[in-house]
Structures are given as structure tokens and as C-alpha cells.
């Protein structure tokens, strides 16, 4: 029988979208039946959107909440830029102010110095610098200014690398775990993120033969290359379409508009955008598509490819990052260049035996990404934790 423990879940936000928010939501779902959980966040928790987007079934009375005080939030909130690292550093520092009285402190916002031993879930290590190109935006230039930004964030955080290393470290993929071990000396264990259970799949023969892409509409997801790939496939398989399901915010509105222009240039009927869908709507879209494709070259895990694989679609991903683990290193599903992706997709579309083989391969792998498996692992880790 599990011990009922007082747990502090530290996370800037659990609100959708985003893979980190999804992991936090399911971690909360895993813990509230057996423990007294308090969520410490940058913004209030609204369970309605969380449940709709991530497929959880949380109640507002299942846990307590604390929000970082307005006086601590004032400076970053006054800035028009995201300042995500500054916000994370402030949250880290505030956590150390309020951590007394909890048996377990856990967070899914990468490395965290709680002032004492806790549990940290890393999507990609914060303190590996320079950052990967996919993490950088126009406001990260010039490099000298970026260095000053890092210095300021680190001073605010006041973190200790030794304390980070004493935490129980979980990662979203073996690829991420390798970075955490090599670069930071962390003893990391992989706990794959939870992917909501798929909708009842449609018979393969009745599914749409087009391509599906899912994820936040943001430059690092490389949707432009997916449009180019879809156009290349369409030149050889005329009925090919690409459906892009995602979310757009004020920081990515211009990028989305550029994708719309690009789609129009390729001609009507190739690309369809569907925005701000619920979890159920996304799962239904997966259930009626045969094929999925992902564009980010160094995806740390790849919730979208995992969702599509769990939903019975054949999914192609770039040969890099943690997403290779979703594909199981299957050469037919991995690509480097756009032309290679086109060749591999067309080959599978024309070969029913290969379709059956790849579907079976992905089905055998996909259960390791289930919510049930994630809940079981997290409960065992929290139960075994000793501060």
C-alpha cells in the first residue's frame, strides 16, 4: 500500500499546449489519487482546457494550488518577450522559499535546484550551452547579449550543480539521457512521456491516404519542409494531401502566416490547417489517417509522432533526436533530406506488404508510450523516493 505523501509539483504552467505541460498534467493525474498534491506554478491552473487538450480527467478539488506572487512576476510579465529562462529561474528561487513541509518535490521543467533533493524531469537540459539552433529565436542575438541574459538568469536562479546532481533525474528519451549524463554528469533514467490512448482505429482500407502532421505551429517544428515533402509526394501520388494540426500564439502568428502563403503557392488542395483542436478531435484525426510525418530534426522525444504511431498511423521522422526511439531505428521510417523522405513515403504508399510490416513494427513499440505505463512508473518513483 502506498504512503500518502505531501507532494509539491513545480511547473511554470500546466496549461496547453506543449509537451512539458502534457507531462505535468499526466504526472498530476498519476499522483492525486494517492497523495496530497500542491501545484506551484507561474499562472493559475484551469483544469478544463487541460483535460480537453491532454485527455486527463482532473478535478479542481483534486489538488491544491499556489501561484508565484505578483511582485515576483512583475518584471518578466512587463516585457513583450517570453523570457522563459528568467521565469524558470524565478520559479526555482521561489520554490526554495516555500518547500518546507513537503515530503516530495517534483517538477518537469528540466533541471531544478529545489534547495534539497527532489525529482526532476528533463526534456532537454537547460544548462547545456550554447543551446541547440532549434531553441534560438531572433531575440537571442547577438551572442554577447545572449550571454548576459544567461548570466542574469543564473544569478536569479542561484542554482547549485551539486544539488542538481543529487536529484532523481528522469528524462523523456535515451537521447536526452545521454546528453544529461555526458554534459552535466547527471545519473539519468528514461521515463517516456505519456501519450493519450488512441481513438478506436478505422480499418486501414477506409483511412485517408494523405499525410498528417501535428504539433505547435513554431519554426523549430519545420512545417515548411513538411509542405515541400508533401508537394514532392503529390507529384508522384496525385491525391496526396497534408493536414497540419496545431496551435498558434502571438509569438508564432507571423510564422503561421508564412506557412499559409507557402501552402497557397503550391496550389489549392495540398495543405489544410486545423487549429486549436481538443484531444478527442486530434485522436479522431489520427484514427482516420494512414500516414504521419514529422519535421523537427533534433526533436527531444516527439509527442506528435508517438501519438500518431499509437493511433495506428505509419510515421516518418528525421534521423536525429529522441524520435528515432519511437521509430525503433527502422530505416524505412527515418530520413535526413526532403528527397529521401519523399522516396520512402512514396515507396510505402505503393507497397501494401510494407505497410503491414511497418504498422506491426510501430504497434509493438507504441505501448511503451502509454499513459498507463507512465502512471505506473511515476507512482513507483514517488513511492520509492527518499529526500
Helices and strands in order, then pairings?
Layout: E1 6-10, H1 19-31, E2 36-41, H2 47-54, E3 64-67, H3 70-78, H4 84-98, E4 104-107, E5 119-122, H5 143-157, H6 161-166, E6 168-171, H7 174-184, E7 188-190, E8 208-214, H8 223-234, E9 242-246, H9 253-265, E10 271-275, H10 279-287, E11 289-293, H11 303-310, E12 314-318, H12 323-327, E13 334-335, H13 338-349, H14 352-366, H15 371-384
Parallel strand pairs: 1-2, 1-4, 2-3, 4-5, 5-6, 6-7, 8-9, 8-11, 9-10, 11-12, 12-13
Q: Any idea what the radius of gyration is?
A: 21 Å
Please give the number of β-strands: 13
Helix count from the secondary structure assignment:
15
- Biggest sheet strand order reads 3-2-1-4-5-6-7
Name given to the CATH architecture of the largest domain = 3-Layer(aba) Sandwich
- Integer count of domains: 2
What would the average pLDDT be, to the nearest integer?
92
Task: Say which CATH homologous superfamily of the largest domain is assigned.
Answer: Glycogen Phosphorylase B
- Structural class, please? alpha/beta
What is the string of SSEs from the N terminus onward?
EHEHEHHEEHHEHEEHEHEHEHEHEHHH
User: How much helicity do the residues have?
Assistant: 40-55%
CATH fold descriptor of the largest domain: Rossmann fold
Largest sheet: 7 strands, parallel
What top-tier CATH class of the largest domain fits best? Alpha Beta
Q: What would you call the shape? A: globular
Low-confidence stretches: none
What percentage of amino acids are in beta strands?
A: 15-25%
Termini gap: 20 Å
